Each structure stands twice: as structure tokens, then as C-alpha cells.
From TrEMBL:
SUPFAM superfamilies: Nudix. The keyword Nucleotidyltransferase does not apply. Residues 41-172 form the Nudix hydrolase domain. This is ADP-ribose pyrophosphatase. Transmembrane segments: none annotated. It comes from Streptococcus panodentis. The keyword S-adenosyl-L-methionine does not apply. Its cofactor is Mg(2+). The lineage of its organism: Bacteria, Bacillati, Bacillota, Bacilli, Lactobacillales. It comes from the Bacteria. Keywords: Hydrolase. Signal peptide: none annotated.
Length: 182
């Protein structure tokens, strides 16, 4: 069975510093006609599961305008221009900027965040051997963050209350639980 949708025409709607929005007119497979696809092209992102030696997860509390609410999330950020070649370095940078920690990283997963309309791929790393940095890189000027260290039970409570509501953090919690159950 054929599945591919062939682009007939692409119209660029918006090009910003983080993503590009386009509308594609596509030819559907098996002669089913034409359809419109609104798409977001994103440079990618990194995220870090940071567990302290005391078995506490480092989360970042921040306001997210898209959902008009505050959430608790694992440290993460977009790949800056030129960082696609070394996403691990980008993850280390984000970990230090957002939490003031450094560590050794291991790739856990890379996944698409919203495959129905966006090509953002997130590389999810696990950090070990965390050490506090004396003079960490400064946080991004447009971010207001609070660092929180939680136990697995506290993280489960944040998930149950809806304070943890993003896919990458939920995935990180599942990874942590699986690791604890080994």
C-alpha cells in the first residue's frame, strides 16, 4: 500500500528564529485527491534527565505562554544555530544554564514531539555524575526559572496534579521508574 503524500505546492507563512511555518498542498496516495497540510519545521531540541546522587530529579519550574500556565519540566532547550552537529554539547549547555549542574550524558531516546504537524526532534539524555558548577553559564535573558529537586513520589504527585504536563518530562519519569525497577 502506498502512503506517501506528494507536495504539489508549498507556501511559506512565517520564518522566525525558532521555526518556520508552511502550508503544503499535497496529493493524497491512491488517487484520493488533494489536501492541505499546515506544518512547522523546527531545528530540534535537547532535554536532560538529571538525577542527583540522592535519587532526586532536577526539574525546572517555568511559565509556558502556549498553555497559559506554569509547569515543571526537565531541563531542555532548542538547538542553537550550528549545534546540530553536536547536540550533546547543547544538552550540557542547557543543563548548566538552567540548573547550574554539569554531568556525563548518555543518549536515551530521540523522538518527535508532535509528529502530526511538526518535525521537532528532541534528543533526550540521561545525566550522571552531576556536580554543581561554581560559576555556571547565565540563564537565557527571556527565561524565569525556579530549580526544584523532587523524589520519584513527589514527581508522581506533580504528574497527577497536572503540574507536569509535557511529553518529554513524562517520558523522563517513565525512564526513571523503569531504571528504579531494574
Amino acid at each position: 500500500m502506498e502512503f506517501e503524500e506528494k507536495t504539489v505546492q508549498r507556501t511559506e507563512i512565517y520564518q522566525g528564529p525558532i521555526f518556520k511555518v508552511v502550508t503544503d498542498q499535497v496529493e493524497l496516495p491512491q488517487g484520493k485527491g488533494l489536501a492541505q497540510r499546515d506544518l512547522i519545521f523546527h531545528n530540534g531540541a535537547v532535554a536532560v534527565i538529571a538525577l542527583t546522587p540522592e535519587d532526586r530529579m532536577i526539574l525546572v519550574k517555568q511559565y509556558r505562554k502556549a498553555i497559559e500556565a506554569t509547569s515543571y519540566e526537565i531541563p531542555a532547550g532548542k538547538l542553537e544555530l550550528g549545534e546540530n552537529a553536536d547536540p550533546k554539547a547543547a544538552a550540557l549547555r542547557e543543563l548548566e544554564e538552567e540548573t547550574g549542574y554539569r554531568g556525563r550524558l548518555e543518549l536515551v531516546y530521540d523522538f518527535y514531539s508532535a509528529i502530526g504537524f511538526c518535525n521537532e526532534k528532541i534528543k533526550l539524555y540521561s545525566a550522571s555524575y552531576l556536580t554543581k558548577v561554581d560559576n555556571p553559564r547565565p540563564q537565557d535573558e527571556d527565561e524565569t526559572l525556579e530549580i526544584v529537586e523532587v523524589t520519584l513520589e513527589e514527581a508522581r504527585e506533580l504528574l497527577a496534579s497536572g503540574d507536569i504536563c509535557d511529553a518529554k518530562t513524562i517520558m523522563a519519569l517513565q525512564y526513571w521508574e523503569a531504571k528504579m525497577n531494574k
